[in-house]
Protein backbone atom coordinates (compact mmCIF):
# COMPACT_ATOMS: atom_id res chain seq x y z
CA UNK A 1 0.00 0.00 0.00
CA UNK A 2 1.33 3.42 -0.99
CA UNK A 3 0.26 6.86 0.20
CA UNK A 4 0.62 9.71 -2.28
CA UNK A 5 2.92 12.52 -1.17
CA UNK A 6 0.13 15.16 -0.98
CA UNK A 7 -1.69 12.90 1.48
CA UNK A 8 1.53 12.40 3.45
CA UNK A 9 2.06 16.15 3.55
CA UNK A 10 -1.48 16.64 4.85
CA UNK A 11 -0.84 14.07 7.58
CA UNK A 12 2.43 15.67 8.72
CA UNK A 13 1.74 19.39 8.49
CA UNK A 14 -0.43 19.84 11.62
CA UNK A 15 1.70 17.64 13.94
CA UNK A 16 4.90 19.37 12.77
CA UNK A 17 3.49 22.89 13.19
CA UNK A 18 2.12 22.07 16.65
CA UNK A 19 5.31 20.33 17.78
CA UNK A 20 7.54 23.23 16.79
CA UNK A 21 5.18 26.04 17.86
CA UNK A 22 4.13 24.69 21.26
CA UNK A 23 7.76 23.82 22.03
CA UNK A 24 8.70 27.49 21.70
CA UNK A 25 5.60 28.80 23.47
CA UNK A 26 6.37 26.52 26.42
CA UNK A 27 9.68 28.33 26.89
CA UNK A 28 7.81 31.63 27.05
CA UNK A 29 5.13 30.32 29.39
CA UNK A 30 7.71 29.07 31.91
CA UNK A 31 9.82 32.23 31.58
CA UNK A 32 6.74 34.33 32.37
CA UNK A 33 5.98 32.16 35.40
CA UNK A 34 9.57 32.67 36.60
CA UNK A 35 9.53 36.45 36.20
CA UNK A 36 10.37 37.32 32.58
CA UNK A 37 7.51 38.74 30.50
CA UNK A 38 9.55 39.51 27.36
CA UNK A 39 7.79 36.90 25.21
CA UNK A 40 4.40 38.05 26.44
CA UNK A 41 5.13 41.69 25.64
CA UNK A 42 6.25 40.75 22.13
CA UNK A 43 3.08 38.75 21.49
CA UNK A 44 4.82 35.37 21.39
CA UNK A 45 2.69 33.60 24.01
CA UNK A 46 0.21 32.49 21.38
CA UNK A 47 -0.48 29.19 19.63
CA UNK A 48 -0.96 31.00 16.34
CA UNK A 49 1.82 29.37 14.26
CA UNK A 50 2.16 32.46 12.04
CA UNK A 51 3.71 34.31 15.01
CA UNK A 52 6.42 31.64 15.35
CA UNK A 53 7.19 30.55 11.78
CA UNK A 54 10.82 30.72 10.77
CA UNK A 55 11.06 30.58 6.96
CA UNK A 56 14.05 28.26 7.12
CA UNK A 57 13.41 26.13 10.20
CA UNK A 58 9.62 25.81 9.98
CA UNK A 59 9.20 25.64 6.19
CA UNK A 60 12.35 25.00 4.18
CA UNK A 61 14.18 22.45 6.35
CA UNK A 62 11.13 20.21 7.07
CA UNK A 63 10.13 20.36 3.38
CA UNK A 64 13.60 19.40 2.17
CA UNK A 65 13.86 16.57 4.71
CA UNK A 66 10.39 15.37 3.68
CA UNK A 67 11.34 15.32 0.00
CA UNK A 68 14.72 13.72 0.74
CA UNK A 69 13.09 10.90 2.66
CA UNK A 70 14.92 11.60 5.91
CA UNK A 71 13.45 12.04 9.37
CA UNK A 72 11.50 15.27 9.68
CA UNK A 73 12.63 17.97 12.07
CA UNK A 74 12.64 21.75 12.23
CA UNK A 75 12.44 24.76 14.48
CA UNK A 76 10.47 27.95 15.01
CA UNK A 77 11.70 31.46 15.77
CA UNK A 78 13.20 31.23 19.27
CA UNK A 79 11.07 32.82 21.97
CA UNK A 80 13.09 35.68 23.51
CA UNK A 81 14.02 35.30 27.17
CA UNK A 82 15.71 38.05 29.19
CA UNK A 83 17.77 36.05 31.68
CA UNK A 84 18.31 39.10 33.91
CA UNK A 85 14.55 39.21 34.63
CA UNK A 86 14.43 35.67 36.00
CA UNK A 87 14.33 35.36 39.77
CA UNK A 88 17.20 32.86 39.93
CA UNK A 89 18.83 33.18 36.51
CA UNK A 90 20.92 29.99 36.26
CA UNK A 91 18.32 27.66 37.75
CA UNK A 92 15.39 29.34 36.05
CA UNK A 93 17.01 29.36 32.61
CA UNK A 94 17.51 25.61 32.94
CA UNK A 95 13.79 25.24 33.75
CA UNK A 96 12.86 27.43 30.79
CA UNK A 97 15.02 25.30 28.50
CA UNK A 98 13.58 22.03 29.87
CA UNK A 99 10.02 23.19 29.19
CA UNK A 100 10.33 22.67 25.42
CA UNK A 101 11.31 18.97 25.46
CA UNK A 102 8.86 18.34 28.33
CA UNK A 103 5.93 19.67 26.33
CA UNK A 104 7.05 17.63 23.30
CA UNK A 105 6.81 14.50 25.46
CA UNK A 106 3.32 15.46 26.60
CA UNK A 107 2.24 16.10 23.01
CA UNK A 108 3.65 12.75 21.87
CA UNK A 109 1.55 11.02 24.54
CA UNK A 110 -1.51 13.09 23.55
CA UNK A 111 -1.12 12.12 19.87
CA UNK A 112 -0.81 8.45 20.89
CA UNK A 113 -4.05 8.76 22.86
CA UNK A 114 -5.76 10.34 19.83
CA UNK A 115 -4.64 7.46 17.59
CA UNK A 116 -5.70 4.89 20.20
CA UNK A 117 -9.15 6.46 20.57
CA UNK A 118 -9.60 6.44 16.79
CA UNK A 119 -8.84 2.71 16.76
CA UNK A 120 -11.24 2.08 19.67
CA UNK A 121 -13.96 3.95 17.76
CA UNK A 122 -13.29 1.87 14.66
CA UNK A 123 -13.49 -1.36 16.65
CA UNK A 124 -16.74 -0.22 18.28
CA UNK A 125 -18.56 0.66 15.05
CA UNK A 126 -17.11 -2.21 13.02
CA UNK A 127 -16.82 -2.30 9.25
CA UNK A 128 -13.89 -1.27 7.12
CA UNK A 129 -11.46 1.48 8.02
CA UNK A 130 -12.91 4.85 7.06
CA UNK A 131 -10.70 7.52 5.51
CA UNK A 132 -11.27 9.69 8.60
CA UNK A 133 -9.99 6.99 10.97
CA UNK A 134 -7.00 6.31 8.73
CA UNK A 135 -6.16 10.02 8.65
CA UNK A 136 -6.50 10.46 12.43
CA UNK A 137 -4.35 7.42 13.20
CA UNK A 138 -1.77 8.53 10.63
CA UNK A 139 -1.65 12.05 12.09
CA UNK A 140 -1.34 10.54 15.56
CA UNK A 141 1.64 8.43 14.51
CA UNK A 142 3.24 11.46 12.83
CA UNK A 143 2.65 13.46 16.02
CA UNK A 144 4.37 10.81 18.11
CA UNK A 145 7.38 10.66 15.80
CA UNK A 146 8.01 14.39 15.34
CA UNK A 147 7.57 15.19 19.04
CA UNK A 148 9.83 12.39 20.25
CA UNK A 149 12.50 13.31 17.68
CA UNK A 150 12.37 16.98 18.77
CA UNK A 151 12.45 16.03 22.44
CA UNK A 152 15.44 13.71 22.13
CA UNK A 153 17.34 16.02 19.79
CA UNK A 154 16.84 19.05 22.02
CA UNK A 155 17.96 17.15 25.12
CA UNK A 156 21.43 16.57 23.66
CA UNK A 157 23.83 18.48 25.96
CA UNK A 158 25.12 20.70 23.17
CA UNK A 159 24.42 24.44 23.34
CA UNK A 160 22.35 26.12 21.94
CA UNK A 161 20.07 23.08 22.20
CA UNK A 162 17.87 22.96 25.28
CA UNK A 163 19.94 20.16 26.78
CA UNK A 164 23.02 22.37 26.69
CA UNK A 165 21.21 25.12 28.57
CA UNK A 166 19.85 22.65 31.11
CA UNK A 167 23.37 21.34 31.66
CA UNK A 168 24.71 24.91 32.03
CA UNK A 169 22.21 25.50 34.81
CA UNK A 170 23.21 22.33 36.66
CA UNK A 171 27.00 22.49 36.61
CA UNK A 172 29.22 24.92 38.60
CA UNK A 173 29.73 28.43 37.17
CA UNK A 174 33.11 27.73 35.52
CA UNK A 175 31.95 24.78 33.36
CA UNK A 176 28.78 26.77 32.64
CA UNK A 177 30.92 29.57 31.19
CA UNK A 178 32.72 27.02 29.00
CA UNK A 179 29.37 25.89 27.65
CA UNK A 180 28.42 29.50 26.95
CA UNK A 181 31.63 29.96 24.96
CA UNK A 182 31.00 26.96 22.68
CA UNK A 183 27.35 27.90 22.04
CA UNK A 184 28.13 29.85 18.80
CA UNK A 185 29.64 26.64 17.36
CA UNK A 186 26.96 24.25 18.58
CA UNK A 187 24.87 24.29 15.42
CA UNK A 188 27.97 23.56 13.35
CA UNK A 189 28.60 20.50 15.52
CA UNK A 190 24.99 19.37 15.04
CA UNK A 191 25.17 19.81 11.24
CA UNK A 192 28.45 17.88 11.05
CA UNK A 193 27.00 15.05 13.14
CA UNK A 194 23.86 15.03 10.96
CA UNK A 195 25.78 14.88 7.68
CA UNK A 196 28.14 12.19 8.96
CA UNK A 197 25.28 9.95 10.08
CA UNK A 198 26.51 9.95 13.68
CA UNK A 199 23.55 12.02 14.85
CA UNK A 200 21.07 9.42 13.58
CA UNK A 201 23.04 6.61 15.23
CA UNK A 202 22.85 8.49 18.53
CA UNK A 203 19.20 9.54 18.25
CA UNK A 204 17.61 6.38 16.84
CA UNK A 205 18.02 4.10 19.89
CA UNK A 206 16.73 6.83 22.23
CA UNK A 207 13.83 7.71 19.95
CA UNK A 208 12.87 4.04 19.64
CA UNK A 209 13.03 3.56 23.40
CA UNK A 210 10.84 6.58 24.16
CA UNK A 211 8.30 5.61 21.49
CA UNK A 212 8.16 2.07 22.86
CA UNK A 213 7.42 3.42 26.33
CA UNK A 214 4.67 5.71 24.99
CA UNK A 215 3.04 2.85 23.11
CA UNK A 216 3.07 0.73 26.26
CA UNK A 217 1.60 3.53 28.40
CA UNK A 218 -1.19 4.41 25.97
CA UNK A 219 -2.01 0.93 24.70
CA UNK A 220 -1.45 1.84 21.05
CA UNK A 221 -0.52 -1.46 19.35
CA UNK A 222 3.12 -1.41 18.18
CA UNK A 223 2.24 -3.31 15.00
CA UNK A 224 -0.22 -0.56 14.06
CA UNK A 225 2.30 2.16 14.85
CA UNK A 226 5.06 0.63 12.73
CA UNK A 227 2.75 -0.23 9.84
CA UNK A 228 1.42 3.33 9.72
CA UNK A 229 4.85 4.90 10.21
CA UNK A 230 6.08 3.01 7.15
CA UNK A 231 3.01 4.13 5.23
CA UNK A 232 3.44 7.84 6.02
CA UNK A 233 7.24 7.84 5.99
CA UNK A 234 8.74 10.44 3.67
CA UNK A 235 10.54 7.77 1.64
CA UNK A 236 7.37 5.87 0.82
CA UNK A 237 5.15 3.21 2.27
CA UNK A 238 5.86 -0.48 2.65
What is the strand and helix layout of this fold?
Layout: H1 5-33, H2 38-41, H3 55-68, H4 89-125, H5 131-154, H6 162-170, H7 173-196, H8 198-218, H9 222-232
Report on this model:
The chain has 238 residues and is mainly α. It has one domain. The protein has helices spanning 5-33, 38-41, 55-68, 89-125, 131-154, 162-170, 173-196, 198-218, 222-232. It is globular and about 60 Å long.
What are the key terms here?
globular, mainly alpha
Rg is: 19 Å
Helix content: over 70%
Number of domains: 1
The SSE string, one letter per element, is HHHHHHHHH
The global form is: globular
SS-derived structural category? mainly alpha
The number of distinct helices, counting runs of at least 4 residues, comes to 9
Quaternary organization? single chain
Average pLDDT, all residues: 89
Question: TL;DR of this structure?
Answer:
This protein has nine helices and no strands.
Amino acid sequence: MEMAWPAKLAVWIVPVLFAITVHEVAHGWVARWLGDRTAEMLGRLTLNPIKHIDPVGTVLVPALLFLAGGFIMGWAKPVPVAVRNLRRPRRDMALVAAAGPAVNLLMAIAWAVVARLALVYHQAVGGGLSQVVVFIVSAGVAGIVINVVLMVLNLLPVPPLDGGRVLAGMVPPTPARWLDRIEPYGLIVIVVLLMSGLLASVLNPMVSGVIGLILEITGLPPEIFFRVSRLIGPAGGG
